[in-house]
Amino acid sequence: MLLENLPEDLQRDIRRHLFKFIKKVWIFHLMDEHILDAVCEKLKQKIYIKGSEVLYAGGLVEKMVFIVRGKLESIGLDGTMVALSEGNVCGEELLTWFLEHSSVSKDGRKIKISGQRLISNRTIRCLTNVEAFSLSAADLEQVTSLFARNLRNPLVQGAIRYQSPYWRAIAATRIQVAWRYRQKCLKHSKTSRSNHS
């Protein structure tokens, strides 16, 4: 509320100073200053206590959480565990989801696809007390609609997909499943060849 009475350029400079940690978050490292300013306008400070759940499997993903201090664990439906700490983000799948589920009409306006919501396939639990900043789904949707072209940049998409502990764990699991399936197929083909000879 104190910031609202100041000139807009001063507000922006103060927000940039207060939220300079956001540049440490891999998703925002490659993004334009305009996107960062829009995100910083919407961030809200959050504190989670040890043992609390930030997201839970089967629940709606309603926010992105940027971890400033503390340790968390991400537990997938398949039991895959990933450690999260300072500089990591949880709920980043929401950003990708908004980009994939936004449509644009012929006149250039965004069409909202109603009734669709993102369901979490993991539980994020605090291992220690956690200080974080949160960006609600509604605020994130507004930012993605304004800056969709910038967020679709292949470098930004790569940062979202390839540097996220969440997406890395999913990729590792899928690679392991594919490898086991291939080994099983090779073993089956060897045994069938030996039976025919």
Automatic annotation (TrEMBL):
Residues 27-95 form the Cyclic nucleotide-binding domain. PANTHER family: CYCLIC NUCLEOTIDE-GATED ION CHANNEL 15-RELATED-RELATED, CYCLIC NUCLEOTIDE-GATED ION CHANNEL 20, CHLOROPLASTIC-RELATED. It comes from the Eukaryota. CDD domains: CAP_ED (cd00038). Gene3D superfamilies: Jelly Rolls. This is Cyclic nucleotide-binding domain-containing protein. The keyword Ion transport applies. Keywords: Ion channel, Ion transport, Ligand-gated ion channel, Transport. InterPro entries: cNMP-bd_dom (IPR000595), cNMP-bd_dom_sf (IPR018490), RmlC-like_jellyroll (IPR014710).
